[in-house]
Automatic annotation (TrEMBL):
PROSITE patterns: FE2OG_OXY
GO term, biological process aspect, one: defense response to oomycetes
SUPFAM superfamilies according to UniProt: Clavaminate synthase-like
Pfam families associated with the record: 2OG-FeII_Oxy, DIOX_N
Name of the featured protein: Fe2OG dioxygenase domain-containing protein
Similarity-based family: Belongs to the iron/ascorbate-dependent oxidoreductase family.
Ranges of residues in domain Fe2OG dioxygenase: 187-287
Cofactor(s) annotated in UniProt: L-ascorbate
GO molecular function terms listed in the Swiss-Prot or TrEMBL record: dioxygenase activity; metal ion binding
Keywords on record: Dioxygenase, Iron, Metal-binding, Oxidoreductase
Length: 342
């Protein structure tokens, strides 16, 4: 029901079904606020250095910010503005798009998977499938009137950026430049427009709890004024402070598998705050459902055997959605030899 959306009213107190048990709270005072994730300038004319920086970031953090990424700044500002306009629409307008069915390609929903959760997350989101555009665009919101044009233009730009990054990531692994793009097939693309309203008690809840991304690559456009993304590094949570006009890139589970575990799909989470609402737009590049995914043959050697078995993305995605968001890394279920947890 659309009345579950938290963006439709102001809240003076946190409803009980959003309060995390004591052991699962964000402990915001423990977060490293002055650490940083790597920043890569994609306009660097030294290709070898650029590739090396991308590879180092994928190994060390699984996250990096990109500057001079080619997506026009005016477009990114328009995307955030029209996203805010969408969430300001009257509740009866938004109700037309509401669904809690994870299988729906286009839907407005709340939290993560409200059918399964016992505790909800302080987030409303619009989920859009984006490729091929002509198939999905007619079902996208027609209000605000500029929504479809702005978001579809952004989708095309982000897809091209993702493929350029695939090239650098492939090279950094010692693979052919087009390896990742080819092996993942005719890729799907979807988007989550995330809205995190002001929260009366941010210490007690999450916008999204710790999770890894099940897809191949995520490109995140963040609100420049309001931080909220945090990344796990060596057991500590790091606050990601957005660089002006940067986009944040993170490695998804499929690239960790393809790299034979060299590159990390790391735990990350979204926290909320009491002063301001926050917006983020996450774009996901996903393999074809029936494509076979596993470590690149070139990365399997006597000294570095295959860490993961081969599987289809369809098999992976179903497993991911059947679990809770914050359970063990879903990739653990696809290891060639189970990890010793004794």
């Amino acid at each position: 029901m659309a009345d579950q959306l938290i963006s439709t009213a102001d809240h003076d107190t946190l409803p009980g079904n959003y309060v995390r048990p004591e052991a699962q709270r964000p402990r915001l005072a423990d977060v490293l606020s002055d650490a940083s994730i790597p920043v890569v300038d994609l306009a660097n004319p030294d290709r070898a250095k650029l590739v090396s920086q991308v590879g180092a970031a994928c190994r060390s953090h699984g996250f990096f910010q990109v500057l001079n990424h080619g997506v026009p700044v005016e477009l990114t500002l328009s995307v955030l503005a029209v996203a805010h306009d969408f969430f300001r629409l009257p509740v009866e307008e938004k109700a037309k798009l509401y669904s809690d069915d994870p299988a729906k390609k286009i839907r407005l929903s709340t939290s993560f998977n409200v059918r399964k959760e016992t505790v909800h997350n302080w987030r409303d989101y619009l989920r859009l499938h984006c490729y091929p555009l002509h198939r999905y665009l007619p079902d996208w919101p027609s209000n605000p009137p500029s929504f479809r044009e702005i978001i579809s233009t952004y989708c095309k730009e982000v897809r091209e950026l993702g493929f350029r990054l695939y090239g650098a990531i492939s090279e950094s692994l010692g693979l052919e430049q087009d390896y990742i793009k080819k092996v993942l097939g005719e890729q799907e693309q979807h988007m989550a427009v995330n809205f995190y309203p002001k929260c009366p008690e941010p210490e007690l809840t999450f916008g999204l709890p710790a999770h890894t991304d099940p897809n191949a690559l995520t490109i995140l456009l963040m609100d420049q004024q309001v931080a909220g993304l945090q990344v796990l590094k060596e057991g500590r949570w790091i606050a990601v402070n957005p660089q002006p006009n940067a986009l944040v890139i993170n490695i998804g589970d499929q690239l960790q598998a393809l790299s034979n575990g060299r590159y990390k799909s790391v735990w990350h989470r979204a926290v909320v705050n009491s002063d301001k609402a926050r917006m983020s737009v996450a774009s996901f590049l996903c393999p074809c459902n029936d494509v076979l995914i596993g470590p690149a043959q070139k990365l399997i050697t006597d000294g570095s055997p295959a860490v993961y078995r081969n599987y289809t993305y369809d098999e992976y995605y179903k497993k991911f959605w059947s679990r809770n968001l914050d359970q063990e890394h879903c990739l653990e279920l696809f290891r060639t030899t189970p990890t010793d947890t004794s």
